[in-house]
Amino acid sequence: MDTDISIGTGNPIDRVEGRLKVMGLAKYASEFNVKNLAYAQGINSTIAKGTITAIDTSEAEKQKGVIKILTYKNADKLKHYEEELPAISTSSIQPVLQNADVHYYGEYVGLVIAETFEQAQYAASLVKYTYSEKKPDIDFDSSRGKAYKPTEKSDYSRGNIMQGMAEADVTLEQTYNTPIEHHHPMELHAIIASWNNGDVQAYASQQIIDDATITIADTFQIEKKNVRVIAPFVGGGFGSKLHAKQHVILGVMASKQIGRPVQMTVTRNQMFTNTNLRQRNEQKIQVGAKSDGSLTALSHDTLSHTSTYEEFQESCGTVTKMLYKTPNNKVTHRLMPMNLQTPFAMRAPGEATGSFALESAMDEMAWKLKMDPVDFRVKNDTQVDPSSDKPFSSRLLNECLKIGAEEFGWKNRPQEPGTKEEGNWLVGYGVSGASRRAPYQKTSAKVILELKDTKVRATIQMDATDIGTGSYTIIAQTASEYLNISVSQIDVELGDSDFPKTPGSGGSWGAASFSNGARAACENALTALEEKSGLKAADAGIAKMMQAGNLNLFEAEGTAEPDEEFKKHSVFSFGANFTEVWVDKDTGVFRIKRMLNVASCGKILNPKTAFGQIIGGCAMGAGMAIAEQTKVEPNYGNFITRSFADYHVPVNLDMANIDVIFLPEEDKIANKMGIKGVGELGITSVAASIANAIFNATGKRMRDLPITPEKLIVAQKEPELLNW
Amino acid sequence: MRPFTYTQAKTIQEALTASANNTEAKYLGGGTNLVDLMKEDVERPSQIIEVADLDFDTITSNDTGGFTLGAMLSNSETANHPDIRKNYPLLSMAMLSAATAQIRNMATNGGNLLQRTRCPYFFEASMPCNKREPGSGCGALEGANAKHAIFGWSESCVATHPSDMCVALAALGATVILQKPDRTSRTIEFTDFHRLPGEQPEKDNTILPGEIITAIDLTQPKFKTNYHYLKIRERSSYAFALISVAAGLKIFGGMITDIGLAMGGVAHKPWKLTKAEAFLTGKMPTTANFEQAAKLALKDAKILSENEYKVTMGKKAIVRALEQALAKTA
Predict the structure, then answer these.
(1) Which residues lie below 8 Å from residue B286, measured CB to CB, with a gap of 6+?
(2) How many CB atoms lie within 10 A of CB A150?
(3) How far apart, in Å, do the first and last CA atoms of chain B sit?
């Protein structure tokens, strides 16, 4: 039976929910058939800072189908923030429509509830607002004076960075910029909310079900047990659905006010203004090294912005603390409150952006040292996390780099930039190393076993979510492995706050957490059945045990959580990315020709879904490198890239053929099943790999993302190239 | 979206009559631009008159030895039509570089000529824009203008025309045929069809109220061998041109005897490079001459705060498009 790929983990089986999805039967938040539904449409501010002085709803109220219009004047009173600039979390409160103040362009200033979506949308356009406008803080450079240190943990240092730089034979100091980006999952944020005598039921597109119930309960100041959130399918999140945003609160409030269920969908245009963003990061890196390539100093100073009403810090310097061995290290983060919406975690927060800066700088240093950039990284490897002095649970970064170099044909890369031509194209190759924390969190699950005739059917329930990653499939595979029955005998039910609690999907902790939670429930079921039946699971199998115990139905719950070994180690996934680019000699046009991603992320539960995670990450990393950018209008503070025609993500033609190698590995320190996170490792360092390849092709260092033809055509070659 | 009434015209007479009765009506072709703008509350017609099913959906040979393109024919059908591929490959190439396959399947030839600018100030109803709301000012003039014009702009408007098809038509030369409300027809030279913004940026072109484009006339086949459409954009599909160049050459006896050269992404209309054309006519097709022509073409460029790169990119694009055109062999 060991060769039966329908049993157990590690097999590339098709998604168990795939058929539902292609048949349109997988229901997403706004698709549930709820009777007597009304529709709500948010109204957005058209100034970036100021106060509302008058609201005229008369024209809108006259329109057919309009049920109610909510503004700060008649909105429910919600819980207020208790401090200035409270830190935003995945479960923090989301007050909305509480006063006349406007903090950013596009902020919700009202809500129209109507019989149809079209009626609500049209009426929303007719509500007239008069503002007393103030000059908004929307310019990054002129906000520098407002920079502050958010928390004590925002800074870190070991050794002495000045001394490390002084001891170095070769030094580098450069600044790297990443622009504002938006998450933009395919499925729009949406909710269908029903308020019934203080009980809330919400179909809501959320990554973390339990935290969504907390945000709703705390914001309305009701008991968490009175809130039920349901999300069996989530069409992507990338971090934007970690936290229940204001539309969730507005949907619930609307239902409370009109006594009917209400659907609220955030439009694609509103996805730019009402669902968080990744803020612009200005990252200054200093590197010092001896002429043999050993690092003497590394520092990473990040300047970013937060909103004027909430605080979020993306820890770009995380990667610089731990990736390479260096005695002298300094990391700082500073924030500037600006009249832009609150930023929040976007795919691989910290690592995706921080690795662009660090891995670009490492490439620049290798070039200055006249070292191969693979060798330079290998030389500075460490098996102990220098920021915590804990050993890594496993770290195969060097293996990723060496195996990748071999498979990619790295040795044929010309070390001197701009020397390989193909017609009008300059060919270049880039590499980067990657790391992504592999968190694993307390997770519970329930297993329900039913015996019919001689066959067992198992149902796993947990409030985990499948955000397109393959949670249903890997949980089914896990249950199959521990119950030793076919995947086809297992049903997985997710995304309901009535089910056992999990950390939800985010931070690449889902796979390890969900699987171990399901494992624990299955192991508990087997132990209990062994007691009841007097049989051994390994010999008898689950059906015989139930028969012997005279059981037709049996339930068990289990919880898995990090153990002492986990806490004694630093647990990360590692990887390397190799890219070939072709850059036109004259026009600024370039193409990504091929990419190889080598990943070391513990046991791979399903090579097919894991492959999808990595190539998806690479595509998003390529988007970050060459396309994605939200531009702020310099005088008014609105976003001028406000649709998919203007906010570019790569198209198929932009993408290369991506090869993925998973290093065979089981990290039993990380957790009992040996699993580490996959998804976010894929995006990490891709942008640096592409930028480094462009340097190899042209001699131009592109330190401001995205790299576009208009930037590339005016960029100058590195001055040192002349003396190289 | 605002409420509107919908009228399906079965004949051109029905369309013209419906339009004459309502000055707020708009004709609907493929809807790929108009409907988008209605959703954005930029276009606010009280009536939609669908003309996509009218009979002007063929490609026929005309008495100049060329071909006539029906206005209601889709961009895909036009670009892939054997007569167009064979006789005007420059047009086919330009059209196929536009938008996406899905949009090209819907978009009509007449509608392509009438598509409106992608300027973000035009699209955002709360921003100043003289094109959308005359007298409200131009937000881009001293705002975000990296993708805006370097030729022919005015203080009132610095927007560019977004079409690829029209750049090729400017290079090839064509005539636009219109049906007037009085049911007679008139023609406009293609290069006179679109206009510069001047003091009236709300007017993209010289079409008059109620008129319908019925066809585009092309004279005898041109640049069947030496042609190229170069489009520089931020991604490989579904992106408007930062700069585009349509180049057609006729080479005889080692000399350029005929040339068509036009640029996109640089002005309120497809920008025909008449000085460069004149310079190269009768000269040898050398890189040195191409570079001279490119320099001449960009001499009058007037940059805005964020679009200086377009001058460098424009020169490089002209040279490259001409070289690529020259390199093609029958």
Answers:
(1) none
(2) 17
(3) 51
Domain ranges of chain A: 18-27+441-561, 347-439+567-723
Cβ neighbours of residue B210 closer than 8 Å, sequence gap 6 or more: B16, B19, B20, B180, B181
Confidence of residue B52 (pLDDT cuts 50, 70, 90): confident
- Give the domain range for residue B300: 226-327
pLDDT at B64 over 80: yes
Express each pLDDT in A422-462 by its tens digit.
999 999 999 999 999 999 999 999 999 999 999 999 999 99
Residue B40 covered by a domain? yes
Cα B167 to its chain centre, rounded Å, is: 5
User: Which residues on neighbouring strands pair with residue B212, listed in sequence order?
Assistant: B179
Which residue of B118, B144, B320 is in closest CB contact with A587?
A: B320
- Measured between alpha carbons, how far is residue A41 from residues A123, A124, B197 in Å? 9, 7, 36
Asked if the structure places residue B276 within a domain, the reply is yes
CA distance A250 to A6: 44
pLDDT of amino acid A259:
98
Q: Residue A2 and residue A8: Cα distance in Å, rounded?
A: 9
Q: Which helix (H) or strand (E) holds A109?
A: strand A108-114
HEC readout, A256-279: HHHCCCEEEECCCCCCCCCCCCEC
Q: Answer whether B142 sits within 8 Å of A46, measured CB to CB.
A: no
The torsion angles phi and psi of B153, rounded to 5 degrees, stand at -80, 165
Q: Out of A181, A580, A680, A718, which one is annotated catalytic?
A: A680
Residue A175: how many other CB atoms lie within 10 Å:
14
What's the pLDDT score for residue A723? 64
What is the C-alpha separation between B26 and B44, in angstroms, rounded?
A: 9
Task: Say whether A82 is catalytic.
Answer: no
User: Residue B261 maps to which CATH number?
Assistant: 3.30.390.50
The chain-wide mean pLDDT, for chain A, equals 97
Sign of the torsion angle spanned by Cα atoms A301, A307, A309, A312:
negative
Does residue B252 fall inside a structural domain? yes
What residues of A are in contact with residue B232 (Cβ under 8 Å)?
587-589, 709
B204, B114 contact by CB (below 8 A)? yes
Task: For residue A275, give the amino acid letter.
Answer: T
Of A460, A466, A402, nearest to A205 by C-alpha is: A466
**What architecture is the A347-439+567-723 domain classified under in CATH?**
2-Layer Sandwich (3.30)
Give the H or E element holding residue A225.
Answer: none
Class of domain A18-27+441-561: alpha beta
Amino acid at B162: P
Say yes or no for a CB contact (<8 Å) between A645 and B2.
no
> What would the pLDDT profile of A245-277 be if each residue is shown by its tens digit?
999 999 999 999 999 999 999 999 999 999 999
Q: Averaged over B287-313, what is the pLDDT?
A: 98
Query: What's B20's domain CATH number?
Result: 3.30.43.10
User: CA dihedral in degrees (A631, A634, A638, A640; nearest 10)?
Assistant: -40
CB A404 within 8 A of CB A397: no
What is the C-alpha separation between B81 and A308, in angstroms, rounded? 57
Other Cβ atoms less than 10 A from the Cβ of B155: the count is: 12
Q: How many domains does chain B have?
A: 2
Give residues with Cβ within 8 angstroms of A454, minimum separation 6: A543, A547
| Res A3: pLDDT | 55
d(CA A128, CA A110) in angstroms, rounded, equals 10
CA angle A659, A664, A665 (to 5 degrees): 130
Contacts of B324 in chain A (CB under 8 A): none
The answer, for B309 touching chain A at a CB cutoff of 8 Å, is yes
Cα separation of A636 and A3, whole Å?
63
Distance CA B60, CA A711 (A): 45
Residue A722 has pLDDT above 80, yes or no: no
Residue from the list A626, A634, A643 with its beta carbon closest to the beta carbon of B144: A634
